[in-house]
Amino acid sequence: MRYKGHSVLYKTMCGIYCVLRPTTDYCNELRDLDHRGPYESGVWSNDDIWMGHVRLPLVAPQNGSQPIQKDDWIIVINGEIYNSDAGKGLSDVYGFDPESPEKIDGVFAYVAYHKETKRVVVARDAFGVIPLYMCHYGGQTYISSELKNLPPGAIMFPPGNKWICQNYVEQLQRFYYYDRVSKNMTNDLSQRVLELLTAAVRKRLQGDTPWAVMLSGGLDSSAVAAIASRLAVTERPDYPVTHSFCIGLKGSPDLKIAREVASYIGTRHHSVTVSLQDMMDAVKDCVRVVETYDVTTIRASVPMMLLSRVMRNYGIRFVLSGEGSDEIFAGYLYNYYCPNGKEMFDECIRKVKSLCWYDCLRANKSTMAYSVECRVPFLDKELVRFALFDMAPEEKIPTRERPEKYHLRQAVSKLLPSSVLNRRKAQFSDAVGSKWIQALKQIRCEDFDKRHELFPHQTPDTHEAFYYRQLFEEMYPGQERACYYTGDSTACSSSTAFKWHSSFEKDPSGLSVSGI
Fold first, then answer.
1. If DSSP codes are grouped into helix, strand and coil, which group holds residue 346?
2. What are 153-170's pLDDT values in tens digits?
3. Given 25, 277, 346, 490, which residue has the most CB atoms within 10 angstroms?
4. Could you give the angle at the alpha carbon of 391 between the alpha carbons of 388 and 392, nearest 5°?
C-alpha cells in the first residue's frame, strides 16, 4: 500500500482519478488534471484500487490533503458539503456517510473504498454540478473528473446516482428522485424565493480565499451579485469587497448594463473587452477544456473561459454565477408559448435533468481550466425543490403582463435597478455581442457532406457543429458518447419549442425568439 497526504479534508474544488483493479501507477494520468488542483496532489493504492487527487484549496488552505481516511474508508472527493454533522475542529467530510449521498446538502463527486469489505462507492450530486465520468476498459474500471485521462468508451456518470461495486458485482442506484406532481403553491412565492436564494448564496460564500461574482447584467447574475455584496461584510470579513467581472465584445449590451448594476449594488467592477479574433482563436482550446461538441455550450464557454483567465490573474479562487435560474424558473423565451401548467412542470424538470450536459459542464470546466471554481446558488437543493415542486407551474408561464421569471424579479425588486428588472432574457453567448454568433455561423467545412459517414452517432447538422465535432474527435477519439449534442435546439429548448409553436427558426440561439 502506498499513501501520501494527511487525514483532514476541508472544502475544496479539485480533481479525482481512480482505477479499480490497477495494473500500474497512474500518476501521469492524474497530472492531466493539474489545472483542477495545481497546489498539491495525493495518492493511495492497494491491489484493489488506485486513488488520486489534485487539490484547489478554498477553505483552510493550510490543511486538507487527500485521499483521506475516515474510519475504514479511503475517500477522494471533489465538492462542498453544507449540512455536515462533523464535530468541532473537524472538516465537513467527517460528517457524511459515503453510503448515503442522498443525505448530503451540497455538490460533490466522490469515490470511497472500504478497506475491510473492499466495497467501492461512487456518487455524484443531484444535478451534476460537479463533473464525473466512468469507463470500463480492458478489465478495469476508470473514474475521473474529466475525459482527458480516460480510455475510449467513457460515459458521463449520471447525476443523483451512486454506483456500488463489491465482489465484482456492480449496482447503479438512483438516490435523487423528481416529484411527479406540484404542490401548486401560489402565495408568498417571491418572498420565499428571496429567502431561499439568500440562504443559498450565504452557503456559497464560505471560504478563506479571494472570491468574486460573474455579472453579465442579466437578471440571474445580478440577483446573485446583489445578494452576495450585501452578505459579504458579515459572511466574508476577510474579503468584504465584492469584485464583479463581465466580458464582451466592444459595444456589447452586457458590458454596458453590467457596469450600471455594479455601480448600483456597489461592487468593484472589472469590465473585460475582447475582440472577435480573440474569441475565434479560443474555440479549439475551448473544445479541449469543456470536452463537448454541443453548439450552444461551446458558444457560451468561450467567453466564460476567457473571463476565467482574467479572474485567475486577479487572484480569484472562486466565483458565484447565475446558472440554473432559467431552468427552475422557466426563463427562456420559448416558454411564452407554453400551453398549460402540466407542460410547464414537465419542461422545467426536463431542463434541470439536462443541465449536467450543458450549463453545469460549462460553468465548472470553463472556470476550472484556470483553477477558479464556479459556485451556482440557483442549484441549491432547497431552492430547486421549491421552484420545481412547490410553486404552481402556471405561475412560471410568462405573459405580456408578467414577464419570464416574474417571481424572481419581484424577489429582488428592491435590490436592483429597473434596467435589469425589465431586461429581457438573452443567452450569455448572444449578449456578449451578436457578431460572435454571426461569425460562428460562417464557419465552413470541406467534408460536411460526409458528416453521416464520419459521425453516425449524433450527426452534426450545421457546418459550425461539424467543425466542433471534428475538433472533439481529434482530441478525444472514441469518447463521442460522453457528450450530448442537441441538433434540433432552438433557444435552449430542443424540440419543445417546435411542439409549442411552429414558427421558430431552427437556430440554437436566444436570438431566434427575441421578437416575442
1. helix
2. 999 999 999 999 999 899
3. 490
4. 110
Residue corresponding to grid cell 454540478 = 129
- The residue whose grid cell reads 464535530 is 87
- Which three cell numbers, joined as nine digits, stand for 394? 402556471
Q: Which three cell numbers, joined as nine digits, stand for 416?
A: 436592483
Residue 410 vs residues 98, 188, 268: alpha-carbon distances, Å: 40, 11, 25
| CA gap 366, 291 in Å, rounded | 10
Candidates 220, 210, 261, 201; CA nearest to 240 is 210
Measure the CA dihedral 365/52/123/291, to 10°: 30
Q: How far apart are the first and last CA of the chain?
A: 63
Mean pLDDT, residues 39-58:
87
Q: Of the listed 14, 338, 348, 356, which one is catalytic?
A: 14
Determine the Cα–Cα distance for residues 310 and 248; give it in Å rounded to an integer. 13
Asked whether the predicted pLDDT for residue 248 surpasses 80, the reply is yes
Query: By the 8 A CB rule, do 332 and 326 touch?
Result: yes
Write out pLDDT tens, residues 196-236.
999 999 999 988 889 999 999 999 999 999 999 999 999 99
User: What is the mean predicted confidence (pLDDT) over 89-104?
Assistant: 80
Measure the CA–CA gap between 316 and 307, rounded to whole angstroms. 11
Q: What is the pLDDT of residue 363?
A: 97
Residues 461, 448: Cα–Cα separation, whole Å = 9
Please report, as a single letter, which amino acid is at residue 61: P
Cα(51)–Cα(27) distance, integer angstroms: 10
Q: Are strands 120-124 and 318-320 parallel, antiparallel or unpaired?
A: unpaired
pTM of this prediction?
0.93
- 162-169 CB contacts, 8 Å cutoff, 24+ apart: 162/101, 162/121, 162/122, 162/123, 163/120, 163/121, 163/122, 163/123, 163/134, 164/119, 164/120, 164/121, 164/122, 165/20, 165/119, 165/120, 165/141, 166/117, 166/118, 166/119, 166/120, 167/118
DSSP state of 36: G
Q: Is 14 a catalytic residue?
A: yes
pLDDT of residue 2: 35
Q: Do 283 and 302 contact (CB within 8 A), yes or no?
A: yes
465 Cα distance to chain centroid: 22
Query: What are 70's strand-pairing partners?
Result: 73
